[in-house]
Amino acid sequence: MELLRHFRSPDYARAVLDELHRITTRHWVIMEICGGQTHAIMQYGIDQLLPEKIELVHGPGCPVCVTPLELIDKALAIAAMPNVIFTSFGDMLRVPGSHQDLFSIRAAGGQVKTVYSPLDAVKIARENPDKEVVFFAIGFETTAPANVMAVIQAQNLGLTNFSILVSQALVPPAMHAILGSPENRVQGFLAAGHVCSIMGTQEYPPVAEQYRIPIVVTGFEPLDLLNGILMTVRQLEAGTCEVHNAYPRVVTQEGNLPAQAMIRKVYQVCDRQWRGIGMIPQSGWCLRPEYGAFDAEKKFDVGHIQTQESEICISGEVLQGRKKPHQCPAFGTLCTPRTPLGATMVSSEGACAAYYNFSRSGIAE
Fold first, then answer.
1. Is 307 part of a structural domain of the chain?
2. Disulfide: which of 2, 89, 265, 307 matches 69 by Cβ 3.0-4.6 Å?
3. Which of 352, 154, 181 shows the shortest CA–CA distance to 277?
């Protein structure tokens, strides 16, 4: 608790904010890539304390939000099958597909179970040899080690009734897609600390150099974020474009090498659809051919399912930093956490949910 108080100290926060007000001379647009950072910014009112010239926009770093609609529909189709136990983290259960969600499947009699680890799903498969057990393996680089470990353990146990439905996304290609768009507004990035705890910081210097943009790796406590913003603004004001690590207590340059090796053993890089954004080349991981027996999409023959996004929801523009959630005509009316049109409203890391839950007047300016 003492450490937590340190990273939430009002005195330190005031000092950082005073420095930001002193050095900021121009309008700067900074994107925090991670949905967890977005929620912390809104919860602690950081956006309201910054100089008016600093604008924060919200990136696609919410794995639930960017899981493509067609994959949600594939998950629903598999979960509805009579001999399947479909397992998932709890935040996926209310994410809307084209017509329903996993809660609806469970209410209709489907065996949908919430787990806290993919290894829990392996245990369920071992205890239910007469059932097909599927784990919804979503996430960025952060969740990949646990997901591939589940596959390795299932293989070691000789389980033929376990598989994973993979929606594993990679952050650097998404940054390329955002920065390379003619509609890009982002001038600086706050990179996600938990992703970098696995992958390190070595992937980011080429991005910073190519687009002439500062990137600062930061954590999730108020002072982590404020310090990251300060380091970014200092670079913007000086005209530099380097990668700085404002989260050294967790992140190193090389990252977690054993975890990276395990990921490479089971996964290979592939093209990936991002919900609301579209196809980003080489932006995901999928199972290597030698682990194809654990691929639920192939095992249950749901690859043919195609979908169409809601014409009302602007989550794709929100995820690319082009619009704020309250600029959506459905925000807070047709679209609420109880009746979400898109995953950004229902996810625990979604920008729309952050604006809805933490804004003082129901709409965050």
1. no
2. 307
3. 181
Q: Record the tokens describing residue 133, joined without a space.
A: 């057990």
- Name the pairing type of β-strands 84-88 and 215-218: unpaired
* Number of H-type helices and E-type strands within the chain: 18, 11
Report the length, in residues, of the chain: 365
Helices (H), ranges, 54-164:
63-66, 69-79, 102-107, 118-127, 144-156
Q: Which amino acid belongs to residue 359?
A: S
Domain-embedded: residue 120:
yes
Alpha-carbon distance 188 to 233, whole Å?
Answer: 8
Alpha carbon distance 225, 208 (integer Å): 19
Q: What's the domain range around 179?
A: 2-62+171-245
Bridge partners (DSSP) of residue 253 are none
* pLDDT tens digits, one per residue of 269-312: 999 998 878 899 999 999 999 999 999 999 998 877 767 666 77
Q: Kindly state whether residues 128 and 200 are assigned to the same domain.
A: no
Long-range contacts of 115-118 (CB under 8 A, 24+ apart): 115/87, 115/88, 115/89, 116/89, 117/146, 118/146, 118/147, 118/149, 118/150, 118/164
DSSP tag of 210: H
Query: Looking at the structure, do residues 156 and 69 belong to the same domain, yes or no?
Result: yes
Burial state string for 68-99 with b = 16 or more CB within 10 A and e = fewer than 16? bbbbbbbbbbbbbbeebbbbbbebbbbbbbee
End-to-end Cα distance, the chain: 32
Write out the DSSP string of 37-83: HHHHHHHTTHHHHS-TTEEEEEEEE-HHHHS-HHHHHHHHHHHTSTT
On whether residue 365 sits in a domain, the answer given is no
pLDDT at 361: 44
Per-residue pLDDT of 213-263, as tens digits, reads 999 999 999 999 999 999 999 999 999 999 999 999 999 999 999 999 999
What HEC string does 274-304 produce? Answer: ECCCEEEEEEEEEECHHHHHHEHHHHCCCCC
Asked if residue 88 lies in contact with residue 139, where contact means CB atoms within 8 angstroms, the answer is no
Domain count, the chain: 3
Q: What is the pTM of this model?
A: 0.88
